[in-house]
Specification:
The chain is α/β, with parallel strands linked by helices. It is built from 29 helices and 24 strands. Among the domains are: 267 residues, Rossmann fold (3-Layer(aba) Sandwich); 76 residues, Winged helix-like DNA-binding domain superfamily/Winged helix DNA-binding domain (Arc Repressor Mutant, subunit A). A hairpin with a 6-residue loop joins strand 15 and strand 16. Helix 3 runs antiparallel to helix 4 and helix 26 crosses helix 28.
């Protein structure tokens, strides 16, 4: 038979005698902080207890009993802590009294008075309902953290054998209720005698006391009813969460299972829907109540009483670089960090280096500005990958969802409008109508990955318009009118209208998305499957090596890839910077944007839809590049790289257009300059103006220089060279006349 009195002595000895590796009395320090009211939780690590038990073989059974009958031993640890609790080292004058102190002093005074009769002699022993429960006077809670080598269980493996035991399971949080007060000690008042009666509540349901206990009734010859005093009762914070089985743990052909988790006290508000967590707690049964009990009979439901919550993915705001991490990252040459970080994304996927650079900038994001009048300029970027089947679009966005601390992956055909935004449901605990956030709400301050974006119904796709620009969801359903935050990045993958991209048709016909939605994407990246013997051979070799080695092969250029953990830490540090656009870049960016608009107007078949949002996209991409340098100022190379990525996103179309037109680069450059001169009635172009003009074209500046020299040699144009070696182009009047 278990000797709980002896086990309580073991608990007291453990608190008093355990020291950590530095010889510090760990738990006595915790208890001292609790006595000084600077701590409210006593966390007992079973790793420490296992280390302590190694000194005495008799204690090994004690440790096993704790893991098998955890709830009973939680009470023993709390009683042992009450006994061991030292006196406060902080003066009483520095500890402000609260309502709890006033009630406790009055109750202790009443109890002392009740222990003496009228003549000052000891009164008969009190009834258990009259004594102050330890739970009422305790200002802290006790939690057990399981051993690190105990491992986690598959949610399907938790069964009747684990009832009452301390177990750990992994899962995704799908639903979290509001925090409500939960009664732990009920206080009743007897009007006739003025006595307070206490009832300790250990579950979610209890039967209130209706009559005065016999001991009090005999003293006052009264059998009056009791009045529940809510102001004198003790309540703790309570929250219920629903944990869903991980997708990798679900057997073939099965649906994910769920587990209900009860959170109390300081553990509340530690989980949000969408979090990937490992929850350790006590697996307990709970009988049905009310009419459901009549139908269920002996069948009970189960839940987990949480003791510890560990987030498997830390958010960027919680991720901190250690000195070792910072030293390692700072040792990387600055000119290589952009290239190295991009290649560390999905290294198993061959090529797509510029696409990976764009996705890296998407994870970093720009700077969100809130103006004095309340207007908000979003800093989160949106990217749509559109292309032929089999170019690894889905694999890329799944990898981003995997390494991002907060990401939600969904598909267009499997998502409805309310599934993306919010739905109204009935709360299982209170029965109230509540809003249940959809995928975009769950991805708040994260990334929402939507695959098969083109397969989505048009009515459901319109729900994304407000989310992508205003970053809110406005709800007016079932009497609930509110606005939810969706500060999320949208990463979408889609196929062209006819399955494969048809270069004979215009981009608008191929993309088949409304202009209002297209303009909200910072980058619409077209990935076309082109036939190229050398590229196809390299791709095949890469895929075979991945299958053979089971991992990404080493790169030929010797670039050492970074692990996802280091990548997350680097991005977390980059997100702490808020770069701004200096005044000297304003004119340059404005000229580039005006040139993009002019080129689109002059093009017979425009490749993109350029609006004022495109200008903001340039700023966001430039800010993300500055963040990657851990810099607070945007520089011109950042803007140039942002423009290059915008051009590369449509490079396949430029190549096709060049091939169809069969026009050599020299003639194409001549036509571009001549059309611009006619549109602007301009005779002179500096080299900087020419750079801005061709920033978004597929022609290099070396080709531009060659074209200028060729047309100078045939006396069509004139060139002047500055002292710095830069060329200035002078056009004749014939070039200006249309």
């Amino acid at each position: 038979m278990q000797d709980y009195a002896q086990d309580k002595g073991y608990c007291i000895d453990f608190f008093k005698n355990f020291t950590d590796d530095d010889g510090i009395p760990k738990y006595m320090d915790m208890l001292q902080d609790i006595a000084n009211r600077s701590r409210r939780v006593l966390q007992i690590e079973l790793d420490d207890l296992a280390l302590y038990c190694k000194t005495n073989h008799e204690l090994l059974q004690f440790l096993a009993s704790i893991e098998a009958n955890t709830r009973r031993y939680l009470k023993l640890f709390a009683e042992a802590a009450d006994v061991t609790l030292p006196d406060p080292t902080v003066p009483a004058s520095e500890m402000a009294k609260d309502v709890f102190d006033v009630l406790l002093e009055q109750r202790q005074h009443n109890v002392s008075a009740q222990e003496m009769d009228v003549d000052g002699n000891p009164a008969p022993p009190q009834d258990q309902h009259q004594r102050l429960p330890a739970e009422l006077t305790r200002r802290y809670e006790v939690l057990l953290i399981p051993r690190s080598d105990s491992g986690t269980l598959n949610m399907r493996a938790v069964d009747a054998r684990h009832l009452g035991r301390l177990v750990s399971v992994r899962g995704i949080v799908t639903q979290v209720t509001d925090v409500k007060p939960m009664l732990t000690v009920a206080t009743y008042l007897d009007d006739a005698s003025g006595f307070e009666i206490y009832q300790e509540v250990t579950g979610r349901t209890f039967t209130p006391l209706q009559e005065v206990p016999d001991a009090v009734a005999n003293m006052n010859n009264s059998k009056n009813g009791l009045q529940l005093q809510t102001s004198g009762s003790k309540f703790v914070r309570f929250q219920e969460a629903k944990l869903q089985e991980l997708a990798i743990e679900v057997p073939e052909g099965a649906t994910p299972r769920h587990m209900v988790v009860h959170l109390r006290g300081e553990l509340t508000r530690h989980m949000k829907p969408g979090d990937a967590v490992t929850v350790s707690g006590i697996f307990l049964p709970e009988p049905f109540a009310g009419f459901r009990a009549m139908k269920a009979g002996l069948v009970t439901t189960t839940f987990m009483e949480a003791q510890h919550v560990h987030h498997n993915k830390q958010s960027y705001s919680e991720t901190k670089l250690t000195n070792e991490d910072r030293a390692m990252l700072e040792a990387i040459p600055q000119q290589d960090i952009y290239h190295r970080l991009a290649n560390s994304l999905a290294p198993e996927i061959f090529g797509h280096e510029d696409v990976k650079k764009a996705l890296l900038l998407l994870m970093v994001g720009g700077v969100t500005r809130t103006l004095p009048d309340g207007m908000k300029l979003r800093g989160d970027m949106h990217i749509c990958l559109m292309g032929d089947p089999g170019v690894a679009k889905s694999q890329l966005i799944k990898h981003i969802a995997h390494i991002s601390p907060r990401a939600v992956y969904t598909t267009g055909k499997g998502s409805s409008g309310v599934g993306l935004t919010a739905a109204v449901q009935r709360d299982n605990v209170t029965g109230e109508m509540i809003l249940e956030g959809g995928a975009l709400v769950l991805a708040d301050k994260g990334i929402c990955c939507i695959d098969e974006f083109d397969k989505m119904e048009e009515g459901d796709r319109t729900a994304i318009h407000e989310v992508m620009e205003q970053q809110t969801v406005s709800i007016a359903k079932a009497g609930i009118t509110t606005t939810l935050n969706t500060r999320t990045t949208v990463l979408a993958a889609a196929n062209p209208a006819w399955g494969r991209y048809d270069t004979r048709r215009s981009p608008a016909e191929n993309i088949a998305l409304p202009a209002a939605l297209l303009s909200r994407f910072d980058l619409m990246w077209l990935i076309l499957d082109k036939i190229d013997s050398e590229s196809d051979r390299n791709l095949a070799q890469h895929v075979v090596r991945v299958h053979k080695e089971g991992k990404a092969p080493k790169r030929d250029d010797g670039v050492e890839l970074l692990s996802p953990d280091i990548l997350r830490k680097y991005i977390a540090e980059a997100k702490t910077h808020n770069p701004y656009i200096p005044e000297d870049l304003t004119e340059y960016i404005a000229a580039v944007y005006a040139e993009m608009r002019a080129d689109e107007a002059a093009a017979k078949v425009p490749h993109s839809y350029t609006t004022a949002r495109t200008l903001l996209s340039i700023l966001r991409l430039s800010q993300a590049l500055a963040k990657l340098r851990w810099d607070d100022v945007v520089m011109q190379p950042d803007v140039d790289e942002a423009l290059r990525l915008m051009r590369m996103s449509k490079i396949s179309l430029y190549e096709d257009q060049d091939r169809v037109a069969a026009q050599d680069p020299i003639s194409a450059i001549y036509n571009i300059i001549r059309n611009n001169a006619q549109a602007n009635n301009k005779h002179t172009y500096t080299w900087a103006e020419l750079q801005a003009m061709f920033m978004t074209s597929p022609h290099s500046m070396e080709q531009v220089r060659q074209a200028l020299i060729e047309y100078r040699d045939v006396n069509v144009w004139s060139l002047e060279e500055t002292q710095a070696g830069e060329l200035t182009l002078l056009l004749g009047s014939d070039d200006i006349i249309a």
